[in-house]
TrEMBL record:
Originating species: Engystomops pustulosus (Tungara frog)
Location of the region described as Disordered in the Swiss-Prot/TrEMBL record: 1-36
Regions annotated as coiled coil: none
Cellular localization per UniProt: Cytoplasm
Record InterPro entries: SH2, SH2_dom_sf, SOCS2_SH2, SOCS2_SOCS_box, SOCS_box, SOCS_box-like_dom_sf
Domain of life per record: Eukaryota
Protein name from the UniProt record: Suppressor of cytokine signaling 2
Pathway the protein takes part in: Protein modification; protein ubiquitination
Domain SOCS box: 154-200
Organismal lineage: Eukaryota, Metazoa, Chordata, Craniata, Vertebrata
GO MF entry, a single one: 1-phosphatidylinositol-3-kinase regulator activity
Cellular component GO terms held in the UniProt record: cytoplasm; phosphatidylinositol 3-kinase complex
Pfam families: SH2 (PF00017), SOCS_box (PF07525)
Task of the protein: Substrate-recognition component of a cullin-5-RING E3 ubiquitin-protein ligase complex (ECS complex, also named CRL5 complex), which mediates the ubiquitination and subsequent proteasomal degradation of target proteins, such as EPOR and GHR. Specifically recognizes and binds phosphorylated proteins via its SH2 domain, promoting their ubiquitination. The ECS(SOCS2) complex acts as a key regulator of growth hormone receptor (GHR) levels by mediating ubiquitination and degradation of GHR, following GHR phosphorylation by JAK2.
Assembly mode: Substrate-recognition component of the ECS(SOCS2) complex, composed of SOCS2, CUL5, ELOB, ELOC and RNF7/RBX2. Interacts with IGF1R. Interacts with DCUN1D1.
């Protein structure tokens, strides 16, 4: 995954071929109640992740990531009124930002128009992040020369707002081992806790 090199504006990273960034087309075609419920459920999962920072300015995100290893990322509220969320990530060229758009009940990375239809869509924000984290971990070394002002975008390690609880780390470990949580010999309350967050990141 590649994007244009960063500057200070929110969401200026643009997937792929370096074309001019364009705004998000008008919104979602789902009913407003269904849309709000779906977004709220996804945000609930995101809050449980431990790496959702809520309201944060571009400069604050840059400061948090400045000394972090390449691939460190966080998710925050977008300062752009047409978007809910932004991924801030440390790249080889420094911290940059990439918006997450929500359309027709799906989340995907914001992109230039010619690339948008090729990007995967997800039911939740955490699912989107998990996909790109796993993709980054399985990446092959790219030897080709990248276009001018283009950098690699790897999502490798989340920047937590605080040290994750042992319970949260345990449920992630369980989810990495099995997807048959309800078959485990555990109390129902514990099964419910594990299935509240069924992700590996």
């Amino acid at each position: 995954m590649t994007l244009r090199s960063p500057d200070t504006a929110d969401g200026t990273g643009t997937i792929d071929n370096g074309a001019e960034h364009r705004g998000n087309p008008p919104g979602d075609t789902r009913g407003s109640t269904d849309k709000d419920e779906h977004i709220n459920m996804s945000l609930g999962e995101l809050r449980r992740s431990g790496w959702y920072w809520g309201h944060m300015t571009v400069n604050e995100a840059k400061e948090k990531l400045q000394d972090a290893p390449e691939g460190t990322f966080l998710v925050r509220d977008s300062s752009h009124t047409d978007y809910l969320l932004t991924i801030s990530v440390k790249t080889s060229a420094g911290p940059t930002n990439l918006r997450i758009e929500y359309r027709e009940g799906k989340f995907r990375l914001d992109s230039v128009v010619c690339v948008r239809s090729r990007l995967k869509q997800f039911d939740s924000v955490v699912h989107l992040i998990e996909y790109y984290v796993l993709l980054s971990k399985n990446k092959k070394i790219e030897t080709e020369t990248l276009p001018n002002r283009t950098v690699h975008l790897w999502l490798v390690k989340p920047l937590y707002t605080s040290t994750p609880s042992l319970q949260h780390l345990c449920r992630m470990a369980v989810n990495k081992c099995t997807d048959k949580i309800h078959e485990l010999p555990l109390p129902m309350r514990l099964k419910e806790y594990i299935t509240e967050y069924r992700y590996h990141v």
